[in-house]
DNA sequence: ATAGGCATGTAAGCAGTTACATGATTTA
DNA sequence: TAAATCATGTAACTGCTTACATGCCTAT
């Protein structure tokens, strides 16, 4: 059980509905957890029946009504136990790095294209996270906020997301460049070796 | 099915037994994929029966015999199709970042300790990956190797691992420092407010 | 003797993904 | 009138994790 705690942590930022959580977890909650919509709805049901969150109906005009959830006292206790327990190692799974690893025996063109696409996504996420940082710290500069702000957790985890996306963007671009140049040289050699 | 391709990519680096693969995937194959031993043994069985890899028995003295596997022609084709296909987004799941996100409502001490531990692990992985890079490029410097080396894939994916571990180490240390300083100030305030 | 590394598996259970289903309302 | 967004689910399947099992050899 692991998604539980990510959901609880996300609900600390305020009441959210299942649908809002799907949006938050689609970006990966500042890049530390991803979850599919269906996972979230069933997790919310379980969390509520375990008494870790409580939901209330919000009536809306012009839109379907929604249920928003808050973390209960028992939910906070659960999070506290989770935070104090050992915890499992970071899990990363990346198709694209597998492709790069194998690229020498393959056609590099589609891999290069995917690297460029990933770089664009990383840049977009980075911009999003940087806006989130500005929003979280308000008028303060980063240093004073981290010293005196009253909720720095989301800020700190968002900083991790920024670092990761920045590195991802730069790695993708430099890898795409390297592979592109190698492919260009390979084409020249082929043209030299088999003309006339 | 996704582990398949990670296993195929790992076997491009040379013949490996199931046990050797468990060691490689335990580190996360330069940090882009993790797999448990039991997953690998069953995946190898399936890959062999699908004809994507072929195994041969290696008789050893002083040790149990082992079966080592090589990628077949069909395996390369499978990898080529995989590399050309769209591919899924990067998956990250990180307990520790969830804890940091929620840290303001919790006891920060165990979180700080886990950040320090993670920083040590990241530093160790970074050192390992940097040795791998030196080993892969041989006598060449990085730039010439990336230009003229004949297998740069593993090098490039290992560079991604380095970037990631470096950032992870630095983020953990700076986050631990921030939280430690806040906790120290909180203790002083408590001591000032309730003495005598 | 005993612990640790090498070597490979089975079985059960839980977590995560994919496909499908519904229905309202706003925007193009 | 079609597509997109809001809103929530069920069902089937695949993949991953955990616990257990075996046995040999080397080093302490």
Characterise the protein shown here.
2 copies of one chain form a homodimer. With 196 residues, the first copy, chain A, is mostly helical. Chain A folds into 2 domains: 3-84, Winged helix-like DNA-binding domain superfamily/Winged helix DNA-binding domain (Arc Repressor Mutant, subunit A, Orthogonal Bundle), CATH 1.10.10; 95-193, no CATH class. Chain A has helices at 3-11, 18-27, 37-49, 73-84, 95-101, 108-137, 142-148, 153-193; strands at residues 16-17, 53-58, 66-71, 91-93. In chain A, strands 1-3-2 form a 3-stranded antiparallel beta sheet. In chain A, a hairpin with a 7-residue loop joins strand 2 (53-58) and strand 3. In chain A, helix 2 packs across helix 3 (37-49) and helix 6 (108-137) runs antiparallel to helix 8. The termini of chain A are far apart. In chain A, 39% of the residues are buried. The model of chain A has no long low-confidence stretch (mean pLDDT 94). At the A-B interface, helix 1, helix 4, strand 4, helix 5 and helix 6 of A face helix 1, helix 4, strand 4, helix 5 and helix 6 of B. Strand 4 (91-93) of chain A pairs antiparallel with strand 4 (91-93) of chain B, so a sheet runs across the interface. Chain A binds a DNA duplex (28 and 28 nucleotides) through residues 1-3, 17-19, 22, 35-39, 41-42, 45, 60, 62-67.
